[in-house]
Amino acid sequence: MKRIHEAFGRSKQHGGALIIYVTAGDPTLDDTVEIVLAAERGGADLVELGIPYIAPTADGPTIQAACQRALSAGATVGGVLDAARGIRDRSEIPLVTMTCYNPILVYGLQRYARDARAAGIDGVLVSDLPPDEAGAWLEAAAQHHLGTVFLVAPGNTDRQLRQAIDVTTGFVYIISRPGTTGARADIYQGLRALVERVRGMAQVPAAVGFGLSTGEQVADVLAMADGAVVGSAVVNVIAGGNADGKLPERVETKVRELRG
User: Fold this and answer.
1) Number of domains into which the chain is organized
2) CATH code at position 96
3) Which percentage of the chain shows pLDDT scores above 70?
4) Among 86-90, 158-162, 181-185, which is the least confidently predicted range?
């Protein structure tokens, strides 16, 4: 968790934190290690490793397809943690796993928290776990010093925002718009007001994700929030595969464009 907060602190020097999401195991887990290192070279401050799941909650077609590719290539929860360990052997970039609840429930909450921490994971976002039902996971995460990341969204009441913020120890993930993930050409016009509400309540950094796809959008978001999360725009690059061995270079170039 310390790495997360330190990264947000350092990122203020260049306008805010750029957080890159990749689906772990797409196209392979070995490629994921190189992709994350390339994203860091391109200017990423934190990386979210998505644990592929057969029915990913809130994910649009781009990330759903990436999950299918990763699962077809043999990605597992344990394999994702092995990839994280490979990244950690070569980098100190903060790593947050993003997952639905079922994979870690099946793996075992205490076991997952222990193994994630041992692999060098700094935080975990459980996308479909309501804050008021997260007691068992919060206990496991705290015991193993993992940061917790919860989602807040347009339409949340102040009470709902407070419930999520009160149990968030890593950073608050603000969903930029109603709907699913996926690159968009515009930014939800009510976003600034939502960011201001969250930042007025939270003691931890606040990052915005869902739909960001260009350097201009990242810059717009960083003018109001502590971080910007980009997923589908990078996953689209990864979808081209690594047959020529140059996928890490393409990811680095894309992240550099997003970093501006």
Assistant:
1) 1
2) 3.20.20.70
3) 93
4) 181-185
Question: What is the predicted pLDDT for the residue at 181?
Answer: 46
Q: Tell me, yes or no, if 48 is annotated catalytic.
A: yes
Its domain, for residue 22, covers 2-259
Q: Which of 40, 45, 48, 252 is catalytic?
A: 48
pTM greater than 0.90: yes
* pLDDT at residue 184, rounded to an integer: 47
Type of residue numbered 75 = A
Six-digit token string for 175: 């969903």
In whole angstroms, what is the distance from residue 68 CA to residue 87 CA? 23
Q: Which candidate in 26, 34, 40, 59 is catalytic?
A: 59
Number of other residues whose CB lies within 10 A of the CB of residue 240: 12
What does the angle CA 92 – CA 95 – CA 97 come to, to the nearest 5 degrees?
Answer: 160
- Determine the Cα–Cα distance for residues 210 and 232; give it in Å rounded to an integer: 8
